[in-house]
Amino acid sequence: MAKAAFIRRGELLRGNISRHLKKRMVKSLVWSVALCGSETWTPRKEDIKRIQAFEMWIWRKMEKISWTAHLSNEEVLSLVKEQCCLVHVIKQRQANWIGHVLRHDCLLKTVLEGKMGGKRTRGKPRRKMLDLLMEQEDKISYQELKRRVEDRIQWHHHQLNLP
To answer: Does the first or last residue of the chain, that is N or C, have fewer Cβ atoms within 10 Å of its Cβ?
Structure first.
């Protein structure tokens, strides 16, 4: 859907618009579509690779760089004066959303904390969003995560400084 939103904005490719304005248009018109609902995703490694590839595709198309030009991703990013940021934005949004949910007593918090009864299916257990966040926070326990989330301002500042 985000690729379609980019392609619909032909002025990003054709027009004599400054690079700065093109980047602002991409961030407002394309990233918003690409990141819709990203707070609730649990991305796997292959999903992260696809998101990063999509981001680089956008920058290359915006600058009209052919795949035969053999420019590295770092060269393209330095050309557009940007950094790879979509995966970082997704992690920040998830942390902010989880913080919001864990600070309130609501059904969603009950569902996130709940345990399923019965037998576990075969194979490796699925990775959950809370597991990813606790791993990102230096392998802390769930109780420690809940304690950190209670201080909203501290939590928000901490999430802005994540790698």
So the answer is: C
Tokens of 154: 């501290």
Distance CA 113, CA 72 (A): 43
Place of tokens 């994540």: 162
In-domain check, residue 119: no
Residue 150 and residue 133 share a domain: yes
Residues 48 and 108 in one domain: no
Domain hosting residue 14, numbered range: 2-84
Decide if 80 is inside a domain: yes
> Is residue 26 domain-shared with residue 50, that is, in the same domain?
yes
Cα angle value 30/51/32 (rounded, 5°): 25
Residue 55 sits at φ, ψ, to 5 deg, of: -60, -45
Query: What single letter denotes the amino acid at residue 17?
Result: I
Please state, in angstroms and rounded to a whole number, the distance separating the CA atoms of residues 9 and 139: 43
Contact 26, 62 (CB under 8 A): yes
Same domain, 54 and 75: yes
CA–CA distance, 141 with 134 (Å, rounded to integer): 7
Lowest mean pLDDT among 32-41, 75-84, 104-113: 104-113
Quickly state the pLDDT bin for 159 (edges 50, 70, 90): low
How many angstroms separate the CA atoms of 113 and 130, rounded?
A: 9
Gap between the Cα atoms of 76 and 85, Å rounded: 14
